[in-house]
Prior knowledge:
Helices cover 13% and strands 48% of the residues. It is mainly beta.
Amino acid sequence: MHLLSASCVCALVISVLLRQVSGLVTVIGLYGETLEIPCNYGAVNAEEDVMITKWKYDKGEGLSGDLLVKRKDHNVSIMTTDEYKGRVSMAAKSSLLLSAAKLSDQRTFTCMVVAGVDITEYPVNVVIQKTPEGLEISDKAEELEIGKLTKLAKCVAKDSNPAVEITWLKNNTTLKADGKGISIQASVLVNDVTGLSTTSSVLEYSAQKEDTDAVFTCSTKNTLAAGIVSSPVTFSITYSTENLILQVTGQDSLVEGDSMTLKCVADGNPAPTAFNFHLKGEMVKVENADSYTITDVSRNTTGEYKCSLVDDPTMEASKAITVNYLDINLIPSGNIVKSAGEALHPNLKIDSSGDTKVSWTKDNVKLDKEPKFAKLTFADSGHYECEVTLGLLNQKASLELTVEGVPVITELTKKRGEDGTHEELICKAEGSPKPAISWSINGTLIDESPFVNGKITQKIRVVPTENLTVSCTVSNELGVATKTINVSSIIEEVRMDKKAQTDENDQTKLVVGVVVALIVATLVLGLAYLVYVKKFKQGSWKTGEKENGSSEEEKKLEEKVEENSQKAEV
């Protein structure tokens, strides 16, 4: 195939497709448009030695008809008087222009060129094509029945040349006849006047449940019209109900006082419009609806519910429904007063529709376990709260525990002030109600802690001028406790401290003197030993005495020196 360039003639855009078939040039034109037929592939130049250019066409049965002629240095002369009159003209390079192309123009046109003494003919075969005037789906089935081969629709492609091929698609997937669930029958009708073809395709289809929302289309394809697609269509598919499902709104979170709606869902098409709802022994018939609402549910609403078809009561669905509830009772609760040493075992009773989660706090601090007291102490006093949860339900209970008892002093201590001029006395006590603290000596209050968990601490400053026995007394309406501590005079303590320091210094001096004396003694003994050894050796040489005796003496002296040296080190 060869594609010629487009030319502008009389403001018409002309497209020509060329191909060589059995030695002939074939030109494909579009129906109703202007067609340009080239002479010798468009190689003829009127400026060259061309005397005459003539176009004619094949009438059939060996006859030809003249169309037009062009002589050198003359205008084009139209010769035809038949159907081509007013439709033919000559373009550049001696091409023939044929307007309003129609199917009867599918024949051979010949360009005859006279140049000098040579006469050459260039035959061209013309083919006219036309795209269909769209695609239309008609004769739609009102509904499809599952498993039954039914005429779905007819797809029509009007007035085309050549006749198109129609393809059916479901959800953009091509359908092919299988002799079972899919049957496709195509036919072509040719217009006697125009010669154009109308193609029809009838689809018979056996539907399935999954085809309920399927989209069907048809498309065409030929050399010029590939991918023309019709508007999509859908079909109603009917089938009997096979399954029922009972749905409950808010099933996982129903609590007392809520409303709940029972909905019976059937898989049939069309869906049933009447249902029976079985409400714990009571049956309610609902028409033109698939739901039933129960308001202000309670724990007594809990149970099994069913729905069934009015037309077929044996087809039913059921659902177990639970209405969540939560009740708690803490014994004892409120304000509780106990004596120290008593036992207390709070009892939390829970009535609920399911498993609960329990947590305890004391004074807003989380506890690891439920509070149980075998022997209460003042520190056990406080606000206890339990929280019980079940899904979205939440309940709380609390008790305010006060442990009372005769106060006791847990600790009475003293310490010297940082400046060394006073004593600080600290009295720690427990008791409830809050005990008052008093002292047997006048002092300045330094600090008193807050009364928390039955505990209180008081600190005072005193400057005793003599040795004293100081008592701390704590009391409340339940009793009194006293404890004493000995406090020395600040002056006496300072004197004793100085004396202790002096004694310590004297001991240090004594030790140093002893060590120095031992070292001196060791040095003196060592010097004496050296002098003695020297003299002894000299006497032995002169008298010729043996040295064994002197050696023993020397050894004894060395042991003596070593013993003195060890004492010095100590």
